[in-house]
Amino acid sequence: MFAETFNVVLVSTYLLFALFIRERAAVQITDLRVPERVAKGTPALLDCEYTLDADVEKGFVLKWYFDTSTLVYQWILGRKPDVFGMLKGQLDLDYSMSNETTEPNYRALYVRNASIVLSGNYSCVVSTYTSEDKQTKRMLVFELPENVSISQNLSNDFIPQGICTADRVFPLPKVTIFADKRKLDTSVVALNDYTYGDGSYSIKAVANISTDSFVDKISCEVYIAEGNYLTRVEKIYYPLVFASSAK
């Protein structure tokens, strides 16, 4: 009697476990492809590849969220996708991951011209009536600086200074001012450039130049690790300019 009861419990447990596994596998994300870095103004493709059991297709919904909780895209199988919020007007809604022999598959986000405000975390959620899967990755849209320049000036205390400026850059770069090959202690001030309303920065970096040794050139190095970008500008240093300005 005990053996029969044990066998019934064992079989029931196995069937419940098998049903659970089947439901869990009804829909599953197999590959979430989100570019880590995208240059501003270039296209970007965010793709959410998944597997779906044929018998649960009617309940299938795919959603994209921005920064975890903001719904920006929804596609119900058999319909055209809906776009919300910040992605409105940003996507090619005719873009499909299917080929000519299959039904349209609108799982991917094809951004026509990436902008800085699209930087953030993107979550793809696929679900049916019985199961759900979710994955998240981050995308950064960077902008290379314009008008990088180096100049010299005197502080209010008549201390020689090197001044480096750059316009419309994102994210904040690392800025270093040099006296010949010697790195100077550089202070950076960054301001949001509201002229264009795109979240970019205008920066100004200042470094004091010691008069204890001869300086031939001053230079400025701007580095954006996320964009694999490095630029350097330089100019001849004129200490006599400071002397005449101080009079």
UniProtKB/TrEMBL annotation:
SUPFAM superfamilies the UniProt entry points to: Immunoglobulin
- InterPro entries in the cross-refs: Ig-like_dom (IPR007110), Ig-like_dom_sf (IPR036179), Ig-like_fold (IPR013783)
Q: Does the keyword Signal apply?
A: yes
Q: Where is the Ig-like domain?
A: 25-141
Q: Which residues form the signal peptide?
A: 1-26
The UniProt keyword set, sorted, is:
Signal
Q: Which Gene3D superfamilies match?
A: Immunoglobulins
Q: Which domain of life is it from?
A: Eukaryota
Protein's UniProt keywords contain Signal: yes
What is this protein identified as?
Answer: Ig-like domain-containing protein
Q: Which organism is it from?
A: Oryctes borbonicus
